[in-house]
Each structure stands twice: as structure tokens, then as C-alpha cells.
Amino acid sequence: MSEPDPKLNPSAVWPRPAASTAVFRDGAILLVARSRPPNAHVWSLPGGKIEPGEPARAAAVREVLEETGITVRIDGLVDIHDVVVHDHAGALSAHYVLAVFHGRWLAGEPVAASDAADARFVALDDLASVELTSGARELIARACRLAG
Q: Which residues, in sequence order, are bridge partners of residue 49?
């Protein structure tokens, strides 16, 4: 997700709709390391902004493909998740409302692109050793239960 333009009135541009996906393949989940602050080099689900007129599910599929080169099938909605970021003075600097989906890998191998610094499948058993963005661990656990 891109950084806000500091010249804009935050109340005029926030919140922004976004979508992400928990993509599963053979006991592993697809993760991306973010390339930009505030979560640079922290792992998360692939995702990003929903474009005007774009359905949330279509945005989720597009963002996974753009960030990782992976083709995915969306199976369902996990949750709606707010990402709210404040600056050091406490002022709102970002607010995204994410539609978080779960789905299955269809094709491709992860290659970081777009705003991802790295992309890879991580074994679900190894998630405890990965630094994840706030809320990601709980969303992944819920996605695992829904995906069966």
C-alpha cells in the first residue's frame, strides 16, 4: 500500500478500501515482506488497494498476482480488518479497511514484485518464527480454520 500524500487532508482520503488473501498450498501459506514503511521487511498477506469500480474479490486476485506472480482461487471471506496508523504525534497517517480472503494456489512460483521486498510460501508449522504485521497471525489462524 502506498504512503499517503502529506499535502492532502487525511479526512478527505481515509479510510481506503483494500483486499488481501491468505493463499494456501501444501501446508504452507503465501507471505510477502513489505518494502515500504511503516512495515518495511515485516511479513504479511499479499494485498493492496481496491481500485475504483473494482470488486474486492477481483482486487484480491489482482494484488496476489501483482505482488507475487501467483495465480489464486478465492474461496471465501475471512474477515474485515482495519489497519490504522498514527504518526509520532498521534495524528492519523493511514487507515485501510481490508477485506481479507482465503484461497488456494493455482499456478506460479512466488517472485516479489510491486511493493513486496520478498515473497515465499512459509510452512504453517514455521509461522512462529516469522515477524508478521499486526493482526496477521490471528487472520491466518482464522483463514486456516475456514479453509479446512
A: 18
